[in-house]
């Protein structure tokens, strides 16, 4: 090779530090933090709602245990009916005044996928101590109805008008 050409040096890549980060990384970090905050908030909200539903159902479990010891169908029906009324009032304040068919319609509208036939007759059974009542079936129906009526998908924002029959 001839020595009369220009003297070339090796190419050196400049040192690029990882800090400070480029703006795109800051945006990505902010999005990740926001997603984490929303996820934690959502998880805590669902956990709080589950605890609320379980605290509502404690009264059902207590009534069931009390019925197992004393066998009083009327007392069980009265306690469960009061529980249903309180839950229904939290969904629709006008439901407190409903009776008979309107009460049944209100129960059905708050948990449309559930059969509410056993729940609708509790207001009659609680005044008849000799009435036959399938406690296990009623307790299961009440548990499922409360969970459905209080579920976040139940549309708490929509209030339905019930006509008293």
Automatic annotation (TrEMBL):
Organism annotation: Luteibacter pinisoli
Lineage of producing organism: Bacteria, Pseudomonadati, Pseudomonadota, Gammaproteobacteria, Lysobacterales
Keywords: Membrane, Transmembrane, Transmembrane helix
Annotated TM spans: 24-43
Domain of life per record: Bacteria
Protein name: DUF4381 domain-containing protein
């Amino acid at each position: 090779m001839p020595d009369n050409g220009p003297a070339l040096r090796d190419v050196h890549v400049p040192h690029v530090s990882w800090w400070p980060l480029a703006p795109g990384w800051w945006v990505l970090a902010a999005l990740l933090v926001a997603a984490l905050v929303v996820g934690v908030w959502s998880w805590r909200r669902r956990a709080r709602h589950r605890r609320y539903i379980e605290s509502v159902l404690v009264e059902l479990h207590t009534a069931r245990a009390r019925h197992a010891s004393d066998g009083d169908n009327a007392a069980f029906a009265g306690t469960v009916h009061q529980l249903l009324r309180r839950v229904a009032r939290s969904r629709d304040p006008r439901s407190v005044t409903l009776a008979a068919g309107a009460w049944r319609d209100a129960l059905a509208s708050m948990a449309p996928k559930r059969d509410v036939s056993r729940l609708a007759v509790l207001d009659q059974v609680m005044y008849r101590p000799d009435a036959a009542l399938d406690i296990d079936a009623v307790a299961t129906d009440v548990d499922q109805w409360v969970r459905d009526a209080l579920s976040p998908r139940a549309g708490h924002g929509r209030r339905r008008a019930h006509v008293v029959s």
